[in-house]
Design brief:
The chain is an alpha+beta fold and about 500 residues long. Helices cover about 15% and strands about 40% of the residues. The longest helix has about 30 residues.
Length: about 500
């Protein structure tokens, strides 16, 4: 009995000792290595070919990096022409950058910064995960600022990349809203700025189908999450639209955002002064409204008449600059005579046309970089298709001219570009980003949308193959046809 008690005591002491050692190690690690806060720095125009690790501790080092950027010299990228680099207080901050790149259709970056005071070391960890098999290069510079790193500390980088064929669907509407929030922030503002100026306002559903009281629903074989936010800066408030589409067949996301960029706006001119500037620019105007333009600038806009012509006046609420743009002509004439048809090569500026399809969206018709092509653009989403056919508008209907000499020289286009995109991506089971340019053509005396994509799989489960898929959508009935090699019935994946 005594031996048993001693054995129990001995085992108990051993367990206590082991626990004490683990506890000491845990306490020691937590005391030496701690995760520190960082802020995403929205520095752009500092390209490096997709590679590089950077520790910037002074204005001189910052300027040297700017002067050596291939995005600026010798031929600046378009988005860098008038770019102003953000100011960084290098007395208080250190700028870190870790460039990562990979291929795919969508991506996610996970970042963290750690400090070890015993080793006098800071570690910046970044992981890039890409999703899908799109032939597209995805690039993330991952610039962050942290509290000033002491001169005696070293900095090391731990980076990894991973490619996955699919991405999991949002498990809840709240998760979808968070994904959309991340995408808005990635346009150029910090999380702190977003939380201070953006507020979730309401749910936006597609114009056709779906549930009016649920954020997500199955639409054209994709789940759609539409959100409306209020954006407030000082005395100005406007709305911001952003949406996410999830394609379950491919496990991919696509986003629809109101602007291509955002920046942090803190100082604005008073509303009274802004209205005065608007009046100077356009003496006679209708009710004004505040909005974010495609580049993320906060503007007051109004429509008015000057010299007998219609103009849109816009006042930038940061710079006080006012711009005046002449409104394009609106096609309202009933088609019939040859001289009212819109032909490729005849337009100098886009025409805003009051066309409505079954989805409810309007369009504009404009010139293309190619002289024999017209561009039809969805005014809500910005998605566009190209056509070499002549077009006409009657009331709120769009027509395309069929082959000369046929018994009927025009055909109604009732399916508009955004609806066609949804049908094509659903039929091909791919995200819109992986499609080639969508065109509107005439086939068998009927208007047809056409697009192609390249897919991958395994022939008889073993041999990797690639093949082309061509999708056609009848622009009158919405009927789709998918054309691909016969042997793809033996392809999986």
């Amino acid at each position: 009995m005594e031996k048993s008690m001693n054995r129990v005591k001995s085992n108990g002491l051993f367990l206590v000792s082991v626990l004490a050692v683990f506890l000491a190690i845990a306490l020691n690690v937590s005391a030496e290595t701690v995760q520190i806060e960082y802020e995403d720095s929205k520095v752009t125009c500092l390209g490096s070919g997709g590679e590089g690790e950077f520790v910037v501790n002074s204005q001189e080092e910052y300027q040297k990096l700017i002067d050596g950027s291939p995005d600026l010299y010798p031929n600046p990228a378009l988005y860098c022409v008038d770019y102003e680099f953000p100011e960084i207080d290098f007395e208080e901050k250190t700028l870190l950058g870790k460039f990562l790149s990979g291929g795919g259709c969508d991506s996610k970056v996970e970042k963290s910064v750690w400090r070890d005071d015993e080793l006098k070391e800071v570690t910046y960890r970044a992981k890039l995960t890409t999703y899908g098999l799109c032939a597209m290069n995805i690039f993330h510079p991952n610039w962050v600022t942290v509290g000033k790193i002491p001169a005696e500390y070293s900095v090391k980088f731990e980076a990894s990349t991973e490619q996955k064929e699919t991405r999991e669907a949002p498990q809840s509407d709240e998760e979808a809203v968070e994904l959309i929030k991340e995408k808005i922030i990635a346009l150029g503002v910090s999380p702190q700025y977003f939380n201070s100026h953006f507020k979730f306002k309401s749910i936006v559903t597609e114009p056709a189908g779906g549930s009016e009281n649920n954020l997500s629903y199955y639409y054209s074989r994709s789940y759609y999450y539409g959100t409306l936010w209020s954006y407030t800066v000082n005395e100005y408030t406007t709305e911001y639209f952003a949406a996410l589409n999830y394609y379950p067949d491919e496990g991919l996301f696509s986003y629809r955002l109101q602007s291509n960029a955002l920046h942090e706006i803190n100082e604005t001119i008073p509303e009274e002064e802004a209205l005065g500037k608007l009046k100077e620019c356009l003496p006679s105007y209708s009710q004004q409204e505040t909005e974010i333009d495609i580049e993320g600038n906060l503007m007051i806009k109004a429509l008015g008449v000057k010299g007998g012509e219609e103009y849109t006046a816009s006042v930038n609420l940061e710079t006080e600059e006012c711009s005046l743009v002449k409104e394009p002509n609106v096609v309202e004439t009933e088609p019939g005579p040859d001289d009212i048809w819109i032909s490729p090569g005849t337009l100098a500026n886009p025409l805003s046309v009051a066309v409505r399809g079954s989805g409810g969206a309007g369009i504009s018709i404009g010139p293309s970089a190619l002289s024999d092509t017209l561009v039809i653009r969805d005014t809500l989403s910005g998605f566009s298709v190209e056509t070499r056919s002549e077009l006409a508008v009657e009331g709120e209907a769009l027509y395309v001219r069929t082959a000369a000499g046929s018994s009927q020289t025009r055909q109604l286009v009732s399916i508009l570009p955004q609806e066609a995109l949804s049908a094509i991506s659903a039929s091909a089971a791919v995200a819109p980003e992986s499609l080639s340019a969508v065109t509107l053509e005439v086939k068998d005396n009927a208007p047809v949308y056409r697009a192609s994509t390249r897919k991958r799989g395994n022939f008889i489960f073993i041999i990797p193959v690639e093949y082309d898929v061509v999708v056609e959508v009848n622009a009158q009935t919405g009927a789709t046809a998918v054309n691909k090699p016969w042997w793809t019935v033996l392809v999986t994946g």
